[in-house]
Amino acid sequence: MGRLAPTQQRGKVAERNIVNAAQVIFAKQGYAGARVADIVALAGSSTGNFYYRFKNKEALFDFMLADFLSLARHTVSQMPDHADCVEDLVLWMITRNAQLLEQNHGFYRAVNEVSIRNPDTWQKLRDLTREIGDAVIIKMAPFEQQISALDWKKSVYEMIELTTGYMANQAVHHMDSKLDSKANIDLHFRASMGILGICP
Question: N or C, which end of the chain is more exposed by having fewer CB within 10 Å?
């Protein structure tokens, strides 16, 4: 078993502190360079407490991956049902994606390293991207006539892949960048509108 799930609030807080600390350490030192001792020191915890909750650093990463996938799916489920136009949906999606990645710089740097020896890690994120595309298509269906791209569904998938892929690359290679800045969101919004064939 890779992880002992906490049952009491105190344990849940301790676990979250370890995860938050891992985000910071992974961002600064990378996954390979991160030591459990550094993570627990930043978390205000102990090595014994870490290994009580996680079998090893790999188990911690697996938990963070599952946690991220769950959070991303929850975020997508909050997409507005009654948007006034395509622009509103695209801006909502890009803004939430930027906020999610901004909070997970360290996780994405770890993903970049782990996926080199375990391609299944990237595949899970690619599957997530496809799920997001499916959800966005459902929400955009009422505005199909506004999208001038020849294959509007294909253009939606391309838009999702571009924005999530480019922002993920920023998260990995530019730790000091603010993914949820207005300038970055505006850049991705204009690029997305171009893919859809819409002039914002």
Answer: N
Burial of 43 (0-12, 13-18, 19+ CB in 10 A): buried
The pLDDT tens digits for 113-162 are 999 889 999 899 999 999 999 999 999 999 998 898 889 999 999 999 98
Topology of the domain comprising 56-196: Tetracycline Repressor; domain 2 (1.10.357)
- CA 7 – CA 136 distance, rounded (Å): 36
CB 130 within 8 A of CB 199: no
Taking CA atoms, 136 is separated from 123, 127, 153, 173, 176, in Å, by 20, 14, 9, 27, 30
* pTM tops 0.85, yes or no: yes
- In the chain, domain spans: 56-196
